[in-house]
Structures are given as C-alpha cells and as structure tokens.
Amino acid sequence: MSILVNTSTPCHGLKFILFGIVWLIYNALHHDLNKAGPTQTLYREKRIPERVVHAKGAGAHGYFESTHDLSDITSCKLFTSVGKKARATVRFSTVGGESGSADTARDPRGFAIKLRTEDGNLDWVFNNTPVFFLRDPAKFPHFIHTQKRDPQTHLKDADMFWDYLSQNPESAHQILILFSDRGTPDGYHNMHGYSGHTYKLVKDDGNWVYTQIHLIADGGFKTFDAATAGKLAGENPDYGIQSLFETIEARKYPSWTVYVQTMTPEQAESFRYNVLDLTKVWPHKDYPMRPVGKLVLDENVQNYFAEIEQAAFSPSHTIPYLEPSADPVLQSRLFSYPDTHRHRLGRDGLMAINNQGARPGYQSTIAPLTYLKYKGAINGSPRDYERAAKHETWIGGAFWDLSEVTELDFEQPRALYQNVMNDTDRDHLVSNIAGHLGNVKSPVIKARTLSYFASVDQSLSNHIAEAIGAPNAKPLPVKPVSEAISFRANVNKAVKL
Ligand code: HEM
C-alpha cells in the first residue's frame, strides 16, 4: 500500500486504495460463489431448456437392494447376489405439460430410475402404465404433437388429440388406463412403474429370456377421481412434488417391490401377441411375477436443479447381461435420449456431460483397457466384461409385423373394461372420456372416436355417446383375429423355411 502512495500523487493514491477495496470485496464475493458449488450452479445454470416431454417432475435419492437370486436366468451381477445394493436417483414426471403445469393432470407418469451399479449406471426409464400408445416409433413425434399445444392457437386441442388416437387404434389399451382413475395418481410415489418394453436377461453361457420389469408400490396404487385431481390442479399444482418431499422428510420412505416376468424365445413363438408389442401386457397366470428386489427412496435432494433437473436418463445406459430387445420403439429410444441430452445439457464447455474425468473416451471390447493412464483413472477397475458365449439373434415369427391394427388389439382393453374394472371404475371411465371428447368440435372426429371405443366394447361407446349427446357408432372395420393369426402362422412358416 505504501508503495502505491509513494509512487503517486495523494489523489491517485486514494483512487488506488478505493480500487483495492473494491477488488477485495469483489474477490470475497466471487470466492464465496466459487466455494458454494450448488449456489454457483443455481446462479449460472438455472435456465437450461426444459425437457421436450416429461418437463414437470419431482425426484429423490435412495437405493435398490437385491432380495432374490436370478442366477438361473441371468449373469447380471446386480441380480445374482442377495443383499447387493446400488444407490438410486429417481425422477417422476408428467408427460405433456410444461415445467410449471399441474402435477395432478391426466397424463401417464414417467418413472425414471438411475442405479449406480458396480458395472456402471443402469437407467430404467419407465412409465406408470404397463403399455404405451404406439408400437411404431415413427408415430411418436406425431402423437406427441397432438398432446402438446396447437401451433396457431397455442392451446391444447381436443380435436387434435382424438383425431390422432382414433386413427391409431392400437392406442386403445393405454387410453383406457389413462382415462381411468389411474390417469390421475395420488402424487408421484403412490403408483407402480413398468418397463412396458420387453427387455432381455442374458446369461454368460449365451442363454437368455425375454423379460418385463414391474415395480409395485408397497403402499398400493392410489388414485384421485377427476374432481379431486382438478381441484388440486388449481389449489396446489405442485402437489406431487410437495407430497414426495414431505413424505421422505417424515421418514415414511416410499418403497417398491421389483418383479420380473420372463418368457423364453420358444414361448414367444406361441404367445398370442407379438412379444415386442408394447401395447400388450403378458398375462400373469402364464408368465408369473418373480420378485427381484426392493427400491426405497430415503433421501431428499439438496439442490433440485443440480440433482434432478440436470439428471439425464436413457434406456441406452445399461449394464452387462440386461439388454434391450429388438422392440423398434425401444431401439429408437436408445438414440433419442442421448440426442436430446446433448441439446438440453450440452456437449462441450460449461455444460459438458460426456467427460468422465481422466477416463479415456473409448471402451475396449475384448479385454480390459490396457491404456496406461486408465489404470489410475478409476481405481484401475475395468468396466469391460468378457462373455463365455455369444447369444444368437432370435429370428422367429415372434417378430411378425407390428404396423397393422387388427381385432387382436382390442382384446386386452376389452378384458380390462369388462373383467378388471368394477362398476365405479367403468362409470369414472365414461365420464372422464366424455368430459374430454365433449370438447371436440368436428363431428367426424367425434364419430370416429366413438367407433374406436365401440371396437373395445359397444356399451362403453354407447354410454360415452349418450353423455356427449352424439349418435351411437359401429366398431371400426379391422382384420379379424383369424386372419391376424393366420398371417402370423405364415410368417412363422417363412422363417422356418
Ligand atoms: C423423456 C423420447 C417413449 C419414458 C423423454 C425425452 C425424450 C423422449 C426426448 C426427454 C428426455 C430428456 O430430456 O432427458 C421418447 C421417444 C419415445 C418415448 C422418442 C418413443 C419412440 C417412451 C416410453 C417410455 C418413456 C415408451 C416408458 C416406458 C420416459 C420417461 C422420461 C422420458 C420416464 C423422463 C425422463 C426423465 O425424468 O428425465 N422421452 N420417449 N418414453 N421418457 Fe420417453
């Protein structure tokens, strides 16, 4: 300081002193921001784009614990040693609404789980419904655009919604679930989760089975009726976030029992439906639920933005011996999620998501990485694995055409309506559909949608027609079951030739 004063006039000296004080204050503040990592993130990164779908969400941390040994069907380390644990991060979400939309909106719920296993991250990017609206990935952008806002009015549009669905009736199964009270769950943690897609559990000797994964909420699947969900949407749009956070704070940790259903490739050949068709469920009596483990959420986040909003889940984040099947929708998702992550979270610079510290950016296929630096990079433990035998690609008739809608597509929604739902469920279904379909302006779309429901059950359609004051409609003209089955038999024959 004295040097500054001595080498300047008194006036300049004062300026330097003032400058020094400002500099010290600035550095003190800056230092604080740098020290408080989450605060810094909050200030700088708060405005990444929201997810293009599943924008509104809630999340927490916890763990998965294996409770049963599956070594007869897989060599996946997580499922072959009872008591093995993996830390978990879970993000629940609605699908169609923006990030400020109501948690109790009628919508499927996302149930995305990241498990940090000894073999790397395993993401289960599941929904709360066992089926989906489509089985052809090319339809997905069209479908999603009909669930979002109209490009001109910027309004959600009932005509657009039902126009798409009634022209793509493989969606009927999912629509019946969505318009039941399961479409409005009580919060995010009182619901089940499902892979929906068929996956493969593989063994070291090359054997494998198809599998469907289920997470069954230990407290049961709790739902709201439409009136309660609508009231909450106005009074507390963040109901789901709040109830998840408060439940964990109160140490009433939400938990799920994880099950798998399995099917051998040979069984898949005689399965009534295409094993890759994610609009279908596998009957539990034929393909029993086998317990695997528990998922428990026991830790709230410290920084929502850093730990949940910036999380990136993808079905392509998987571990050895748990593989995606050839389901084309699942196959398309393997690429779509990392792609959107680069857009949403960035590739290089401040928002880099692909760097893994000093780890080399490649994976060795047949032997552990021999690159010298790697040894020190991640405690020297290679993530690679070597399998005793390669498994064959199955090319049986179970891969038959997925594009055509036939009478087979109405069997499961019909059974749901006629045999699984009770009278109250059916009443709610009719009034929930009527409440939405009643907003459609086009008589053509209304009539086609009533035909769509008549294909499921004529009385369901007639009840909806009565509720919206429209004439009764006949079922859609589709190929009968006998033709659908004989088509498949021909595919089978062709494959065996
Ligand atoms: C989120 C695409 C089908 C479950 C997303 C996102 C995209 C996407 C782009 C945003 C991801 C992000 O920003 O991080 C697709 C495509 C599908 C499809 C192209 C079909 C062709 C499905 C299905 C399921 C599902 C069938 C469930 C079985 C989810 C979940 C999220 C999500 C849970 C939210 C993940 C999170 O919380 O970060 N999807 N999706 N999606 N999707 Fe899909």
TrEMBL record:
List of catalytic residues: H54, N127
Highest taxon, organism lineage: Eukaryota
Listed Pfam families: Catalase, Catalase-rel
Cofactor(s) this protein cannot do without: heme
Residue ranges constituting the Catalase core domain according to the UniProt record: 27-370
GO biological process, one term: response to hydrogen peroxide
GO MF annotations in UniProt: catalase activity; heme binding; metal ion binding
UniProt keyword list: Heme, Hydrogen peroxide, Iron, Metal-binding, Oxidoreductase, Peroxidase
Binding site residues for heme: Y337
Presence of keyword Iron: yes
SUPFAM superfamilies on file: Heme-dependent catalase-like
GO CC terms: mitochondrion; peroxisome
InterPro entries: Catalase, Catalase_clade1/3, Catalase_core, Catalase_haem_BS, Catalase_immune_responsive, Catalase_sf
Family: Belongs to the catalase family.
PANTHER family recorded: CATALASE (PTHR11465), CATALASE T (PTHR11465:SF62)
Protein name as it appears in the record: Catalase core domain-containing protein
Organism: Paxillus involutus ATCC 200175
